[in-house]
Amino acid sequence: MKKIIVTTHEELSEMIDASVARRINPLRDIINKRLNPQKKNVTVKEASKMLNVTELTIRNYVKQGKIQASKIGRRIVINLESLENSLNEVKSLKYRR
Question: Could you tell me if residue 65 is inside a domain?
């Protein structure tokens, strides 16, 4: 079945732009994610906001060894993956009596 579409120059260019954009936008998103990766390390302040606890609680967990962290100068930096793993361990310790 053949269809003949009569369009103006503007309509044709809009249709082409839309189809190209559908193909290019996912590729653009992938490139942006690779060039600008999500933050993998957080400070004590950011971790306390994420977990809805005080900064002192986070610092105490770091001091006790429940959360693994590293120091860069005077700043304590926590890796997000290790934070999630530490939280799972803390929950299991809470119920081990």
Answer: yes
Cα separation, 93 vs 97, in Å, equals 8
Structure token pair of residue 42: 């957080």
What are the structure tokens assigned to 9, written together? 């120059």
For residue 73, give the nearest of 97, 28, 47, 43 by alpha carbon: 43
Residue 95 is predicted with a pLDDT of 54
7 is a domain residue: no
H or E segment to which residue 85 belongs: helix 80-94
Cα–chain center distance at 25: 19
**Which pTM value belongs to this model?**
0.53
Q: Supply the range of the domain harboring residue 61.
A: 41-94
Instruction: Tell whether 88 is covered by a domain.
Output: yes
